[in-house]
Amino acid sequence: MTLLKVENVTKRFSGLTAVNECSFTVKSGTVHALIGPNGAGKTTMFNMIGGAFPPTSGNIVFDGTQLAGQPPYKRNRLGIARTFQLISLFNEMNVIENVMAGSFCRTKAGLFASLFSLPNATREQALTRKKGREILEFVGLDAGPHVEENLARNLSYGEQRILEIARALASDPKLLLLDEPAAGMNPTEKVRLAAMIRRVRERGVTVLIVEHDMRLIMDCADIITVLDHGSRIAEGSPDEIRSHPKVIEAYLGKGAA
Ligand SMILES: Nc1ncnc2c1ncn2[C@@H]1O[C@H](COP(=O)(O)OP(=O)(O)O)[C@@H](O)[C@H]1O
Ligand SMILES: [Mg+2]
Q1: Pocket of ligand 1 from Cβ distances under 6 Å
Q2: 1-79+173-257 and 88-172 share one CATH topology?
Q3: Angle subtended by helix axes 119-139 and 157-169, to nearest 10
Q4: CATH number of the structural domain 1-79+173-257
Q5: How far is it, in rounded angstroms, from Cα 183 to Cα 158?
Q6: CB 219, CB 207: distance < 8 Å
Q7: Which of 12, 42, 68, 70 is most buried, most CB within 10 Å of its CB?
Q8: Ligand 1, atom 11: closest residue by C-alpha
């Protein structure tokens, strides 16, 4: 079943075409990778799916709904959650609060009432906290005493990236967008990340991932779409993409293939 359909999407920034007539389809239950050299338009594509800005032309349909005109919080409620290329945690909040913040698109009381502990919010908040703990356990960030009370900024860089994913998962997404989640991680953390992405898929969450680490992509992607200069140049299984002449050329320059 199709979860996300990107149809002939173009994005122009004044003179520059960042994404050019790009189409691809993400199937439910898959880990779908979007790869390509720096400047290929990957983050721009994520920004259009997440609703940071609209495409110049083209359509994006999520789970049967046209996304045009829907602001980011509505897309989050529809089931799209994302992490950012640069870490964007609430540094002065502790670990569990960061995860809980991801849930508020699903609670009745909302973030404001919860922050000020209004009566109706208290019970809901206890449930949100319980769910937050379950997610921290799921992503493997529950180890060590007092980890929940630790401020986000005290975590290692790799742990902060995982915490961002935990926060995104707290909104119960159907589609999780990960923009370079392995950036800055050490090899051990990358292996753990790949395993976690596979568990996210097992949980029933579809993943669209932008990543430069080819080993990680080959390790967990079911299908890969390749962008170069804003255009889709190839799509296929990891094995097909590994040996695709156009892909080799895009990464290594003409003549390499
Ligand atoms: N907000 C923006 N304003 C102007 N140009 C942008 C903006 N965002 C991205 N670009 C340009 O669009 C192109 C694609 O960028 P980006 O989507 O970030 O690539 P990638 O994530 O594949 O490295 C680049 O040339 C970049 O400089
Ligand atoms: Mg990028």
Answers
A1: 13, 16, 18, 36, 38-44
A2: yes
A3: 130
A4: 3.40.50.300
A5: 9
A6: no
A7: 42
A8: 18
Q: Whose CA is nearest to atom 9 of ligand 1?
A: 44
Token couple for 90: 């609430």
Rounded distance between C-alpha atoms, residue 206 and residue 66, angstroms:
18
Query: The pTM is what?
Result: 0.91
Atom of ligand 1 nearest to the CA of 36: 22
Confidence of residue 119 (pLDDT cuts 50, 70, 90): low
Tell me the CA–centroid distance for residue 37 and ligand 2, in Å: 9
Per domain, the residue ranges of the chain are 1-79+173-257, 88-172
> For 138-166, how does the pLDDT look when each residue is reduced to its tens digit (9 = 90+)?
999 877 667 788 888 888 888 999 999 99
In CATH, the architecture of 88-172 is 3-Layer(aba) Sandwich (3.40)
With beta carbons less than 8 A apart as the criterion, state whether 176 and 207 touch. Answer: yes
CA 169, CA 197: separation in Å to the nearest integer? 11
How far apart CA 116 and CA 113 sit, in angstroms, is 5
